[in-house]
What we know:
Two copies of one chain form a homodimer. By secondary structure, chain A is α/β, with parallel strands linked by helices. The first copy, chain A, folds into two domains: 1-107 and 260-363, Isopropylmalate Dehydrogenase; 129-257, Isopropylmalate Dehydrogenase. In chain A, 40% of the residues lie in helices and 23% in strands. Chain A has twelve helices and twelve strands. The first copy, chain A, has helices at residues 14-32, 45-51, 57-65, 88-98, 122-125, 165-180, 196-212, 223-232, 244-257, 301-313, 318-333, 352-362, and strands at 4-10, 37-40, 68-73, 103-109, 129-135, 143-151, 154-164, 185-190, 217-222, 239-242, 265-272, 278-284. A ten-stranded mixed beta sheet of chain A has the order 2-1-3-12-11-4-5-10-8-9, sandwiched between helices. A two-stranded antiparallel sheet of chain A has the order 6-7. In chain A, α1 packs across α10 (301-313), α1 packs parallel to α12 (352-362) and α11 crosses α12. The radius of gyration of chain A is 20 Å and the shape is globular. The two termini of chain A are 24 Å apart. The mean pLDDT of chain A is 96. β7 (154-164) of chain A pairs antiparallel with β7 of chain B. The structure holds 3-isopropylmalic acid (2 copies). One 3-isopropylmalic acid sits between chains A (75, 89, 92-93, 248) and B (193-194, 224).
Amino acid sequence: MSNSLLILPGDGIGPEVMAEVRKVIDWFGARRGIAFDVSEDLVGGCAYDAHGTPLTDAAMEKAQSVDAVLLGAVGGPKYDKLDFSVKPERGLLRLRKEMDLFSNLRPAVCFDALADFSSLKKEVIGGLDIMIVRELTSGVYFGEPRGVFKEGNERVGINTQRYTEGEIARVARSAFELARARNNKVCSMEKANVMESGILWRDVVQEIHDAEYPDVELSHMYADAGGMQLVRWPKQFDVIVTDNLFGDMLSDVAAMLTGSLGMLPSASLGAPMANGRPKALYEPVHGSAPDIMGTGKANPIACILSFGMALRYSFGKGEEADLLERAIDKVLADGVRTADLMQAGDKTPATTAEMGDAIVAAL
Amino acid sequence: MSNSLLILPGDGIGPEVMAEVRKVIDWFGARRGIAFDVSEDLVGGCAYDAHGTPLTDAAMEKAQSVDAVLLGAVGGPKYDKLDFSVKPERGLLRLRKEMDLFSNLRPAVCFDALADFSSLKKEVIGGLDIMIVRELTSGVYFGEPRGVFKEGNERVGINTQRYTEGEIARVARSAFELARARNNKVCSMEKANVMESGILWRDVVQEIHDAEYPDVELSHMYADAGGMQLVRWPKQFDVIVTDNLFGDMLSDVAAMLTGSLGMLPSASLGAPMANGRPKALYEPVHGSAPDIMGTGKANPIACILSFGMALRYSFGKGEEADLLERAIDKVLADGVRTADLMQAGDKTPATTAEMGDAIVAAL
Ligand SMILES: CC(C)[C@H](C(=O)O)[C@@H](O)C(=O)O
Ligand SMILES: CC(C)[C@H](C(=O)O)[C@@H](O)C(=O)O
């Protein structure tokens, strides 16, 4: 089977970290004989600059036809004043929606070598390994009606949280499947005490559990309490499943707990395509970080690990993904550090490119 | 002026911590000659048990007519299966909505004596003192349409996020006012990158700032990044202003950061009444904690400090509020600790009642 990959470097540090991923892809081609059919396109602010839209129809079509999309990051202050409909984020949201990538996997893992970087105590986050499964194609991100309207003399801002039973069921299944391959525990989070959409969420997750995954341990938590518990004792969790908006917040909190923000990848998966592979988009959890753009301070590991997730989930190359992860472990153990991983007393940091080279060398 | 106070102990540990507040109220009456006209009623699950509704109309009327309402906590597993319309939480939400308590003040303060209880490093949270101002009467908590509906064969859960310009403006003003009395910095949080209601939120906060509070330093942050930054370096904030749902999550995360969850009070304020005092409800940030109900493990300090906020904001007794806070500091410095504040090696904890007595003695 051929391996087609669409690369969308995007804005800010996106192109810088993606250049390092290219080195890794080339290595797998040259040394492991895994040929990738790589194409590249624009998304976000740079697409708007070139074409007046954050994602062209042509790029959208390409994304639909490849085995995997790898995205850097979108957005930046330069685009803050743009109309809502052409903001950089709309490009990313269009990809998620039209590819129907309903299951967003966001691991929050604390790397041993980096436990000191967390603002949390080492005993609280050392060895942490949880997986947040966020619903990604529905909820308040996409519900209608939406907009800013005039009512009499006043402006009114409206968004709609909307979930169907089927949308909840499919992401719940994906969380239960993941849990079976991990520690068999799922915690579902919503605000069923104040939102009816949360009541439906809780009911459907429970029904899918009882009918199809009775072997998995399931609990429910209000999302505010969930945020608290993530801070208090995150190791109580294995898999967390939650909606689009709560997932946005909770996964960011969880990522920051680990101290490894520049290290965390994510996968957004949809239904299987004709060739059996799922529709898939991979991207680092970190954003476009315009403040450090062009300084060589960006850490390419999150994006390289996102490619690692693509190896595992899209290309059936679990062994190669393991190899890549081990190479990164080795580089970190050897003390190679980008600027975000420096501690007082450390010598000069490795640049983005030096980190990429070190990882290729370790491979 | 008379001082009328309605006490609603509620469910779980609510009545236990409220019993200790009563001692403090009595002390101010006997020793300081500040007479309170105290009445008591039911809210939450206990009101449902007695009357089939989480808040009777009579109790609602009483709440409307007093200077301040002091609430313990509502909810518990016993009521999980109740219909949405009579859940314990509906009683609290009815109070907030009908009293029009639009500005919810949630301080996140780290008490020196307790800095070790945080899961965060001491240097990250030592001396922390931020104030979260949460909009409390609108947004997705109250927007229509809402409910679980049948669409064809499928259930659909719907809630509506809805903010008017006026609703945003008034809570923004309350945040700017507070900032002027603190460190003059406000950070407003929303998801303007994906929600139109967030765009309106950002615009209105900026407009009120520019027109009425140009002297206050204002910044804007996406709510997910805000959650991250709260974990990374919370001391960067002074006042945070945000909507009902984001405020629910962010204030819980902020409260947990401090390690002082059993210590944090809150105030929910509305417009001034005929006597010049604002409509007001005070309650601890912690919940009903059914797991420790009846064990003497509950910490009454959050509820006592909530009464302290009432002294300050409703009864114009700032000096007495200071006195009460100093008494609590002293008790903590003396090493009196309820179960939630114990560390390995500590002797037996003080009970809820012993903590209350110690605070009265310190007064
Ligand atoms: C960039 C933005 C649209 C996006 C989101 O809100 O989903 C980001 O915060 C994320 O979590 O991937
Ligand atoms: C009890 C519940 C309705 C409430 C809320 O969601 O507002 C609580 O979490 C709070 O923060 O006061």
